[in-house]
């Protein structure tokens, strides 16, 4: 037990009494493996959070007859250990003499669902992602983690109309549906329609990043998924939500996006938890994939604006009241007026600055300040922005989705932040990501030191020399 | 039909012989059952037995076998000009009236739906024709989600192919490097 107490235990009931396992299983248990330990020491904040989860006492109202794991329970060899298989269902056999039996001979449907009961397999997973483009983009590692942890899982997304556009960049998602989880008073018809839709898809796991109160918890409960996992309000509004959810996370503040890049760390921590012989799943970095069609469309766009592939620098974060500004909710002060951008763009040597405007009405302002020969590309969707960044030499942006996209495509970037703390939150390990963070001294983005930005622009010259 | 004939035969005597004796009244009344029983067999001209001084004849034209349209009654009295009474009868039974109205209503409703649908721009719109379907209007598909899903699946395959190509390329490089080493040795 000493070993177990040293390590963060998962909430999984199977690990609450590890010594009761028969010895073959015990030898396979993951917490004896050193990699897991080193992983935890590397990320102290996660360790801390996990301990907080462990200290959370079990809710006796959830199941009054749940006395924990049965110590005398013996598991066989089938479906007890390891990850699930990629696809448990072999391809259909058209030569099957039994006709209506679509599955091939020898495939045992009777025990096909055992994995879901014994091992906790997840075949269909639904993620309800709150927030806009930025929040959805930062959820990509979670989706990849789910894919890695549960091979063959089908991941569906419920997001707001803006957030849904992000999933153009994600190859791991099956369906993406529009339903704004942040809307406190949805249309009754939409609400019931979505409940029916989710219920009829028979999900095994529903994840939600909206802070759930009783209402949202009821919504998740009605999907009848086995695992209903959600963030809950860190205050009294969470009352009653825990009864309807099977796992809850309490964020540090009311705004989940305040957490920056690791805003979903509690959920990621729970998703990647070790289970029997499966070690802790490492959180993958943010990656986006861009389809060929998207690249072609965007190439036509920037060529039209007078830029060449690999010879321009994307400038994103022009102040406007457009909804397509792709800011994070955790950092509202993250747009700069075009005059400031003009000064910065003048310092760019050897590359053509391409101004990304979120709305056509901004085009006039940009032309007025920068001049009529400025390269202006009108982009509203994150997919097009990613394709634009992918073909660029680098990115200069404030704290918008452009910075994360540049990091995801491993492009050199300069990030302008209102304060240093924000910079560390939103772009951790900036050096590894070829990202230079320039932050304002006063805490307001408008007071940013333009000379520092101009000095930082030299990283693009370095990349030019390398290329 | 019998009522029509009875109307002729009963009312007419009343009009023309109000001042006749009560005997006549009784007489005409007593004639009733006979009239009724015989009317079912009428077709074409028929002689009505009246009193000596008065003879009358009735002519009926049928539109359909059971559907009298018009009747002409000619009364002849001695010493007077003939009295000719036309009566148009437009008689339908309750059932027939019901049928007519039912047909009218059904046709109107169907006609509103059918002929209005012929001009409805919705059925020529992108919303209706665009998402597939066969134009019969029995289903309107939501194809957008399917398109997005398949494009993501294609994205996944593209990435997979890229990865495989990279791995194969790496292996080839390794092999070539090995061959070179062998050659050098």
Automatic annotation (TrEMBL), chain A:
InterPro entries for the chain: PNSB1 (IPR044983)
Q: Which residue ranges are recorded for the region named Disordered?
A: 73-97
Q: Which GO terms describe its cellular component?
A: chloroplast; NAD(P)H dehydrogenase complex (plastoquinone)
Which stretches does UniProt call biased (Basic and acidic residues)? Answer: 82-92
Superkingdom, taxonomy of origin: Eukaryota
Its Gene Ontology biological processes?
A: photosynthetic electron transport in photosystem I
Annotated PANTHER family? PHOTOSYNTHETIC NDH SUBUNIT OF SUBCOMPLEX B 1, CHLOROPLASTIC
Q: What is this protein called?
A: NAD(P)H dehydrogenase subunit 48
TrEMBL record, chain B:
- Top-level taxon: Eukaryota
Descriptive protein name: Photosynthetic NDH subcomplex B 4
Its source organism is: Quercus rubra
Q: Which InterPro entries match?
A: PNSB4
- PANTHER family in the record: PHOTOSYNTHETIC NDH SUBUNIT OF SUBCOMPLEX B 4, CHLOROPLASTIC
Q: Name one GO cellular component term.
A: chloroplast thylakoid membrane
Q: Which GO terms describe its biological process?
A: photosynthetic electron transport in photosystem I
């Amino acid at each position: 037990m000493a070993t177990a107490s040293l390590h963060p235990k998962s909430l999984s009931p199977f690990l609450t009494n590890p010594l009761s396992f028969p010895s073959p299983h015990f030898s396979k248990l993951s917490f004896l493996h050193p990699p897991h330990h080193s992983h935890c020491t590397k990320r102290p904040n996660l360790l801390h959070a996990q301990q907080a989860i462990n200290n959370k006492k079990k809710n006796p109202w959830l199941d009054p007859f749940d006395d924990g794991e049965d110590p005398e329970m013996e598991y066989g060899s089938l479906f007890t250990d390891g990850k699930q298989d990629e696809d448990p269902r072999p391809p259909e056999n058209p030569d099957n003499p039994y006709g209506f039996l679509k599955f091939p001979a020898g495939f045992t449907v009777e025990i096909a669902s055992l994995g879901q009961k014994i091992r906790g397999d997840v075949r269909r997973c639904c993620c309800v992602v709150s927030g806009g483009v930025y929040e959805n983009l930062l959820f990509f590692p979670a989706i990849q983690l789910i894919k890695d942890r549960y091979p063959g899982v089908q991941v569906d997304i419920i997001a707001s109309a803006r957030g849904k556009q992000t999933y153009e960049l994600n190859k791991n998602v099956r369906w993406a549906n529009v339903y704004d989880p942040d809307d406190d008073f949805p249309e009754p018809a939409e609400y019931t329609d979505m409940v029916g839709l989710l219920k009829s898809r028979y999900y095994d796991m529903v994840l939600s990043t909206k802070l759930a109160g009783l209402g949202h918890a009821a919504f998740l409960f009605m999907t009848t998924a086995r695992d209903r996992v959600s963030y809950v309000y860190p205050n009294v509004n969470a009352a009653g939500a825990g009864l309807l959810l099977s796992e809850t996370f309490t964020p540090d503040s009311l705004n989940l996006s305040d957490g920056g890049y690791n805003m979903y760390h509690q959920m990621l921590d729970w998703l990647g938890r070790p289970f029997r012989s499966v070690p802790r799943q490492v959180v993958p970095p943010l990656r986006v994939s861009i389809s060929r069609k998207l690249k072609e469309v965007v190439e036509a766009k920037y060529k039209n604006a007078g830029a060449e592939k690999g010879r321009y620098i994307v400038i994103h974060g022009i102040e406007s009241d457009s909804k397509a500004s792709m800011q994070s909710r955790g950092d509202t002060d993250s747009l700069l007026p075009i005059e400031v951008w003009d000064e910065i763009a003048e310092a760019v040597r050897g590359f053509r600055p391409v101004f990304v405007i979120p709305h056509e009405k901004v085009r006039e302002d940009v032309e007025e300040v920068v001049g009529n020969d400025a390269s202006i590309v009108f982009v509203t969707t994150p997919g097009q922005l990613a394709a634009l960044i992918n073909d660029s030499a680098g990115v200069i942006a404030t704290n918008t989705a452009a910075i994360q996209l540049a990091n995801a495509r491993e492009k050199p970037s300069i990030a302008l932040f209102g304060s240093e703390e924000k910079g560390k939150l939103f772009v951790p390990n900036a050096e590894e990501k070829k990202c230079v963070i320039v932050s304002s001294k006063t805490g307001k983005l408008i007071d940013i030191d333009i000379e520092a930005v101009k000095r930082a622009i030299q990283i693009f010259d370095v990349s030019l020399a390398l290329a | 039909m019998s009522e029509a004939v009875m109307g002729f035969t009963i009312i007419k005597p009343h009009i023309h012989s109000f001042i006749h004796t009560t005997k006549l009244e009784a007489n005409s009344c007593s004639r009733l059952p006979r009239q009724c029983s015989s009317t079912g067999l009428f077709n074409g001209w028929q002689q009505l037995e009246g009193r000596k001084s008065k003879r009358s004849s009735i002519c009926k034209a049928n539109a359909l076998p059971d559907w009298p349209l018009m009747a002409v009654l000619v009364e002849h009295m001695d010493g007077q000009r003939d009295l000719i009474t036309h009566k148009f009868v437009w008689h339908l039974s309750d059932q027939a009236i019901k049928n007519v109205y039912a047909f009218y209503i059904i046709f109107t409703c169907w006609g509103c739906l059918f002929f209005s649908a012929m001009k409805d721009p919705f059925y020529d719109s992108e919303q209706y024709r665009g998402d597939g379907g066969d134009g019969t209007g029995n289903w309107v598909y939501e194809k957008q989600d399917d398109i997005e899903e398949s494009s993501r699946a294609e994205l996944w395959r593209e990435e997979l192919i890229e990865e495989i190509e990279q791995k194969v390329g790496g292996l080839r490089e390794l092999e070539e490097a090995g061959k070179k080493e062998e050659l050098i040795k």
